């Protein structure tokens, strides 16, 4: 973490220029890892090793990496179902993340959650939530909890909660109730709309009013906002960091329209009739990963081409191992896991069929 | 040697932060239900919340009109003055929003009490209360639970019409992961609510607008009523009357009437629906051979169906007559006085049902 710098921020302030090389190279490493991980995820899905719905994050890597870069490790984070990138960038091991998708006992939820439900207690990731918008009141609650802790209980510190949502979630009532409450109660939750332009096959302007001025929705609740380009991780950080610092300090909510794009279909079963190949290619030209790699190699000059290649090789190796780990792991046993983790205090007679139990220890504990 | 399951069971969940259940005692060792410290049901609820809030700073109350207005039904009267606006929180009319928010707060480590003005209004919060709170522990593989209490008025209030008269017990108790308590009197209201606040799992706490003014002795000394333990309110050997919540009162009336005709009913107040103390029901049925379940919610796939199924599964051989149920009429709740009272399970209908089983 860099020292707190109080600036007005905005493009050109160049806060990221003051960060150490290690930090900005770390961002690239995270982005490369997410991309390689997602490529492996896709092939594992195609081989039917992963079941259910599976949403790929490729194209959006800078969004999560740049925003995480601006907060502390113990700031709570919650997101929707397109969550593999969030899990990895928060520090979940690719092994555990992949194992969850493979439905194994070594997964982050012991195989009880799946692709859409990544939880990581040590890394303050409160899920992965499959119902569009459900995480938005929860995000307010996590921030409320943090604020209550220092304000009422006199311990802890000023925190912010990053609550991610898709542009489609803008139209869920839950978000609007949550934003109103965050405004009224001055709750330090930051709603980050990962605006990839589509909710499934619905282009944003077909489903959402004022699609080119999403900040107006925040304005309606008295919430300060930013509209940020999510294709360049450094400029994203430069704009987001000062915003976070102020919101943390003043303990109030924020809203970010973070422009991004997903390259793959909505989920693994999407023929993508709603957009052209040219449109996708157009966005790939300003690819966030290439852009940051180029910046580090050619502009900042802190990374050699060999080192970049090495980084990519490492990531490939890591995710290959993750697949092997997942494949080699055992499935949760019916005896141990089907009826466990239903209640923290499993009492007699909670169910007519049998008693509940505690499960095996979570691998992340 | 321990079996694998027993070994697993030894593990403590970090999922819900620090928690410790109070020491529960046998029914016979509980403080007396007789005495002259007579208070209202609503005051008993208030005492439970206030005592737990004094004990644990993590506990707070949120809901519509709970603070400045002193509660729509005056349950939280005076609590704002004692605990301040950071812990007694007026929320906007956003059930989905504040229920969901409190789930986040519970995951973070707090102990929210969420007041629904009526459980009827909780339906707009169905996603957070049914899809998130009871499933969090399972979905996160034991990493995060949801220690939270949702409470409010359940059942027909008094000519409020169908939208405002929901009995949610059957609908919600269907979901694994939650617990449900439904006290029928001030003593249990206090003791069960204190237990609900201490319990690390999500508890759905069902009160009744029609009972908030009921008065009874509530002891000065601290006590907790455990979940999953029915109370025998009246002993008898002819028929077992099983009920919970407000209809327990009708059962007692009916039992009184029937005693005059020489039919002695044993009345069981279940107190919690999940867990359901089926052992006590079976024990009673062994004695009486007859069971009538009185349930203020609708009959189709209701709590009465569940109780009767379990009685059949576990005590079929003891039955001398087929089980009988008394439910709300299987229609939307009507407004007109005459229709509403015919709709609800009442003393008359209970008496008739009992006579059917002994006739
Ligand atoms: C309440 C609810 N309705 C519908 C769905 C089905 N669904 C899953 S994702 C999705 C599109 C959401 O798009 P967006 O919020 O933009 O997120 P993105 O997929 O682009 O990341 C829909 C309709 C759901 N999961 N939850
Ligand atoms: Mg989208």
Number of helices of chain A: 13
Total DSSP helices of chain B:
13
CATH superfamily descriptor of the largest domain in chain B: Thiamin diphosphate (ThDP)-binding fold, Pyr/PP domains
Which fold does the CATH topology of the largest domain in chain B refer to? Rossmann fold
How many discrete domains of chain B?
Answer: 2
In short:
The complex is a heterodimer of chains A (365) and B (359). With 365 residues, chain A is α/β, with parallel strands linked by helices.
Protein model, in words:
The complex is a heterodimer of chains A (365) and B (359). Chain A is globular. Helices cover 43% and strands 10% of the residues of chain A. Chain A is an alpha/beta fold. Residues 1-12 of chain A have low confidence and may be disordered. In chain A, helix 1 runs antiparallel to helix 3 (84-90), helix 1 (21-46) packs antiparallel against helix 11 (288-299) and helix 2 crosses helix 9 (233-250). In chain A, the strands form 2 sheets. Chain A has a 6-stranded parallel sheet with strand order 2-1-3-4-8-7. Chain A has one domain: Thiamin diphosphate (ThDP)-binding fold, Pyr/PP domains (Rossmann fold). Chain A has helices at residues 21-46, 61-68, 84-90, 94-101, 135-151, 173-185, 204-207, 215-219, 233-250, 277-285, 288-299, 305-328, 334-338, and strands spanning 77-79, 125-128, 161-166, 189-195, 198-199, 202-203, 224-229, 254-259. Chain B is α/β, with parallel strands linked by helices and 359 residues long. In chain B, the strands form 3 sheets. A 7-stranded mixed sheet of chain B has the order 3-2-4-5-7-6-12, with helices on both faces. Chain B has a 5-stranded mixed sheet with strand order 9-11-10-13-14, with helices on both faces. In chain B, helix 2 (41-55) runs parallel beside helix 8 (186-198), helix 4 (95-108) runs parallel beside helix 5 (126-132) and helix 9 crosses helix 13. The longest helix of chain B is centred in the first third of the chain and has 15 residues, at 41-55. Classes of the chains: A alpha/beta (365), B alpha/beta (359). Chains A and B meet through helix 5 and helix 6 of A and helix 1, helix 4, helix 5, helix 6 and helix 11 of B.
């Amino acid at each position: 973490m860099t020292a707190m710098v109080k600036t007005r921020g905005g493009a050109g302030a160049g806060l990221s220029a003051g960060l150490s090389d290690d930090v900005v190279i770390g961002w690239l490493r995270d982005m490369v890892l997410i991309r390689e991980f997602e490529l492996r995820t896709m092939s594992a899905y195609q081989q039917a090793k992963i079941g259910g719905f599976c949403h790929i994050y490729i194209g959006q890597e800078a969004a999560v990496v740049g925003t995480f870069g601006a907060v502390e490790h113990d700031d709570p984070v919650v997101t929707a179902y397109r969550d593999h990138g969030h899990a990895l960038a928060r520090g979940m091991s690719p092994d555990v993340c992949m194992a969850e998708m493979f439905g194994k006992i070594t997964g982050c939820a012991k195989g009880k959650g799946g692709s859409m439900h990544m939880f990581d207690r040590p890394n303050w990731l409160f899920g992965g939530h499959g119902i569009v918008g459900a995480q938005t009141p929860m995000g307010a609650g996590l921030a409320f909890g943090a604020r209550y802790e220092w304000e009422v209980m006199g311990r802890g510190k000023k925190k912010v909660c990053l609550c991610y949502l898709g542009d489609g979630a803008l139209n869920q009532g839950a978000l609007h109730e949550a934003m109103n409450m965050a405004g009224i109660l001055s709750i330090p939750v930051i709603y980050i709309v990962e605006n990839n332009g589509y909710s499934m096959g619905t282009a944003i302007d077909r489903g959402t009013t004022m699609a080119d001025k999403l900040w107006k929705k925040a304005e309606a609740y008295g919430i300060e906002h930013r509209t940020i380009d999510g294709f360049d991780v450094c400029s994203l950080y430069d704009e987001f960091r000062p915003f976070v610092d102020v919101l943390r300090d003043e303990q109030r909510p924020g809203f970010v329209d973070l422009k991004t794009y997903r390259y793959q279909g909505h989920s693994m079963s999407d023929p993508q009739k709603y957009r052209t190949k040219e449109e996708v290619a157009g966005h790939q030209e300003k690819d966030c990963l290439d852009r940051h790699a180029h910046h580090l190699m050619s502009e900042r000059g802190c990374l050699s081409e060999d080192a970049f290649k090495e980084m990519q090789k490492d990531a490939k190796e890591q995710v290959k191992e993750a697949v092997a780990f997942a494949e080699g792991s055992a499935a949760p046993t019916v005896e141990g896991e089907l009826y466990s983790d239903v209640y923290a205090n499993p009492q007699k007679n909670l169910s007519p069929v049998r008693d509940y139990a505690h499960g095996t220890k979570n691998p992340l504990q | 040697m321990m079996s694998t399951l027993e070994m697993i069971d030894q593990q403590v969940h970090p999922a819900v932060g620090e928690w410790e259940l109070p020491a529960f005692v046998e029914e016979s060792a509980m403080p007396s239900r007789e005495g002259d410290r007579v208070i209202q049901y609503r005051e008993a609820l208030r005492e439970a919340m206030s005592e737990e809030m004094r004990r644990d700073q993590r506990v707070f109350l949120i809901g519509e009109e709970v603070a400045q207005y002193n509660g729509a039904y005056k349950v939280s009267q005076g609590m704002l003055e004692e605990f301040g606006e950071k812990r007694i929180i007026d929320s906007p009319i956003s059930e989905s929003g504040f229920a969901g928010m409190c789930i986040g707060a519970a995951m973070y480590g707090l102990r929210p009490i969420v007041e629904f003005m009526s459980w009827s209004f909780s339906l707009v919060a169905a996603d957070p209360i049914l899809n998130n709170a009871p499933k969090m522990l399972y979905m996160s593989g034991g990493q995060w639970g949801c220690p939270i209490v949702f409470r409010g008025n359940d059942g027909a209030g008094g000519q409020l019409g169908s939208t405002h008269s929901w009995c949610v017990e059957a609908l919600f108790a269907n979901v694994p992961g939650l617990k449900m308590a439904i006290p029928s009197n001030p003593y249990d209201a206090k003791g069960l609510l204190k237990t609900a606040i201490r319990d690390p799992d999500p508890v759905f706490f069902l009160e009744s607008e029609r009972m908030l003014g009921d008065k009874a002795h509530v002891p000065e000394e601290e006590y907790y009523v455990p979940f999953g333990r029915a109370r025998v309110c009246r002993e008898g050997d002819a028929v077992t009357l099983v009920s919970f919540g407000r209809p327990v009162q009708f059962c007692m009336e009916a039992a009184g009437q029937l005693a005059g005709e020489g039919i002695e009913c044993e009345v069981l107040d279940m107190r919690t629906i999940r867990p359901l103390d089926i052992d006590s029901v079976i024990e009673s049925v062994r004695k009486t051979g007859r069971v009538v379940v009185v349930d203020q919610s609708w009959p189709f796939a209701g709590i009465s169906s569940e109780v009767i199924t379990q009685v059949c599964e576990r005590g079929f051989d003891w039955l001398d007559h087929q089980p009988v149920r008394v439910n709300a009429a299987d229609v939307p709740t009507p407004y007109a006085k005459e229709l509403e009272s015919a709709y609800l399970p009442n003393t008359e209908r209970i008496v008739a049902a009992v006579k059917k089983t002994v006739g």
